[in-house]
């Protein structure tokens, strides 16, 4: 996109309401704009990040055998009465009456609805196992929304739901999601560590949170360096095969949130490998058995002809939250440092002298070669403004073109993460950017 | 997807509540499932169609220079009080109180919100023109929702909003969307005819509906055969150049809905070219000037230093509605006939004898060559069931593999739309399917 025609606004001032780095940077870099307390509109650059995060999540869900559906945002209250959660959920649930005075709600999660949908079709054990996921906006009416998209009221979430005939089957489904989550976060340039979680009001006895480390994290975590060093993407998992070895590796090394921390076990970790840091939760997986299938009347005919309530699990990733979490994990004083896989654009092309024939020609060539993954700063602005905006926006590469370089056919290429610079020909610069 | 493991359920019985073909077929083919009155969950096959429709809309919006953003579903009531529409809108607007008793609403459209967002950034005439669009779920609390996704309460819509310094500029933006809409519908295999529309309560003086012809259409339309014969995709429009010739061609031939029909002008159309048919509205474009920019206080500094309220237009396409409309325009007694560009899968592979080594091997080869754009019917079912499900589901191609054909390395390829059949080698069958 050409900045002269794009809607990619940046702010010079830091908005007063933003308390944490990601919130501040998302507003200043023009990724989002608040429209009500805890509710945001996504501007073009922010939406590009959101879509890239979403697409990585989708690809890894599909790879693990989950199937995408899309449930609506508005749900009937009756379903939640059947499960018993309608009264339990409290004021976080946005309750609505439609024009016929029927009780509706804006879904904060979808266990009830997916169980009811599946019930409409599944008749026999041959219809199992299945794992259905959707990526949809949800609403939790937080009493004090804050931290931007990290704790908003309207948020985008991927939630998957598995249905199995037996507990053993459900454990395999759980491991599939466990491994898919490791890959999902690794592809975004994140080190997400699975940590055993309290199962809380949702119930069940198998649950992990996936937590990334960031100085500004919301909670204290304790983790073995061995887990941080492990290269997740080196494995190519066979999702139909036995995934226990991968899960066992992760669960046999120490990793715990403050609530689940065990000082005695921690003392067993060699001192040099003990990492105590701040963490941000980006995913959560649960096994909860027949907690919803039983009350909602989902049952299939088993191999012996008798009805069986499927064993279920649910698996969430906060997609809009991840955009903030990635920034918390990757920024500096000057702005955002996007990991390559989720950057809104791979490169910013900075024309230091628009109107100079050499600069314009070289920039146009670069732009043609890199579009649509480049922003072209063709504005009539001082070089300093362009440098600052590019650093703030955090594109992995900056291709800087001034009159002297242009005359020699050279581009100055800067890597945002390291500050490294190199003077390259157009072809080499394009190759470096595309190879990243 | 392998049907033995997929969540692609079909229904044998026609659901009683469905009055029109698309609603009936969408339920029977397992594209959607109703979760409340006028609210639907999209199952995997339906979601694939929805996403393909959405992606065509997106590509043509981008090509025309519009920029994608994403506004939230929940809006503050104050914005609608500023524009004066909060009280006008009536019971179709889903009104909500949050936990702090603030008045919110589920957006039925976004003129107010986009104007407010743009106001936060646009300062000067240099920030114009811009066209911002989003693709988001909306809610209209219809008193009697019916016709499935054609008239649902929660629906997916693309809405674009243009901002220009002058009326002439706004007319150019209007023409950009006019031409983009022609291309969008043509790419989906639809003949959508722009018809001059009453501007209604939204105001303004330039407005067209885009209407497709279907026997089961909701209203009567009158159109010249010349428009139906025109090949939209033969043109490659230059969106920055003068689009008047294209728009003039369309507006100089007769096309009108019943409300705007003019018998005297219709009598001027040569009798052989008069087509009177039923139509379904799939898009709507408006110019409305400063109707929202003025009351909401959006103004930019003009070239002469004086403040100017931008001239605006809005441009909608009902994306979820289109899925139903396409089926209304393209089905037969046996089921759906998907146009190639929006089909959930290009082909169904029908294994007539699972367990037969030759059939299995040939089907696996076909599936590997066509995945992920094929469904593989590997179920233990009678051939008749498989034929019926494939016809119902409407995949453009059916690749039928029986023991005799498999032994000779031959596939029977059927084109769903015409019923034409050919016996081909695997390579030729794959090439035919991919070339469609």
TrEMBL record, chains A, B:
<dbReference type="InterPro" id="IPR044140">
    <property type="entry name" value="ProRS_anticodon_short"/>
</dbReference>
<dbReference type="InterPro" id="IPR004154">
    <property type="entry name" value="Anticodon-bd"/>
</dbReference>
<dbReference type="InterPro" id="IPR023716">
    <property type="entry name" value="Prolyl-tRNA_ligase_IIa_type2"/>
</dbReference>
<keyword id="KW-0648">Protein biosynthesis</keyword>
<dbReference type="InterPro" id="IPR050062">
    <property type="entry name" value="Pro-tRNA_synthetase"/>
</dbReference>
<feature type="domain" description="Aminoacyl-transfer RNA synthetases class-II family profile">
    <location>
        <begin position="38"/>
        <end position="339"/>
    </location>
</feature>
<keyword id="KW-0963">Cytoplasm</keyword>
<dbReference type="InterPro" id="IPR002314">
    <property type="entry name" value="aa-tRNA-synt_IIb"/>
</dbReference>
<dbReference type="InterPro" id="IPR036621">
    <property type="entry name" value="Anticodon-bd_dom_sf"/>
</dbReference>
<keyword id="KW-0067">ATP-binding</keyword>
<dbReference type="InterPro" id="IPR033730">
    <property type="entry name" value="ProRS_core_prok"/>
</dbReference>
<dbReference type="InterPro" id="IPR004500">
    <property type="entry name" value="Pro-tRNA-synth_IIa_bac-type"/>
</dbReference>
<dbReference type="InterPro" id="IPR045864">
    <property type="entry name" value="aa-tRNA-synth_II/BPL/LPL"/>
</dbReference>
<keyword id="KW-0547">Nucleotide-binding</keyword>
<dbReference type="Pfam" id="PF00587">
    <property type="entry name" value="tRNA-synt_2b"/>
</dbReference>
<dbReference type="InterPro" id="IPR002316">
    <property type="entry name" value="Pro-tRNA-ligase_IIa"/>
</dbReference>
<keyword id="KW-0436">Ligase</keyword>
<keyword id="KW-0030">Aminoacyl-tRNA synthetase</keyword>
<dbReference type="Pfam" id="PF03129">
    <property type="entry name" value="HGTP_anticodon"/>
</dbReference>
<dbReference type="GO" id="GO:0004827">
    <property type="term" value="F:proline-tRNA ligase activity"/>
</dbReference>
<comment type="subunit">
    <text>Homodimer.</text>
</comment>
<comment type="function">
    <text>Catalyzes the attachment of proline to tRNA(Pro) in a two-step reaction: proline is first activated by ATP to form Pro-AMP and then transferred to the acceptor end of tRNA(Pro).</text>
</comment>
<dbReference type="InterPro" id="IPR006195">
    <property type="entry name" value="aa-tRNA-synth_II"/>
</dbReference>
<protein>
    <recommendedName>
        <fullName>Proline--tRNA ligase</fullName>
        <ecNumber>6.1.1.15</ecNumber>
    </recommendedName>
</protein>
<comment type="similarity">
    <text>Belongs to the class-II aminoacyl-tRNA synthetase family. ProS type 2 subfamily.</text>
</comment>
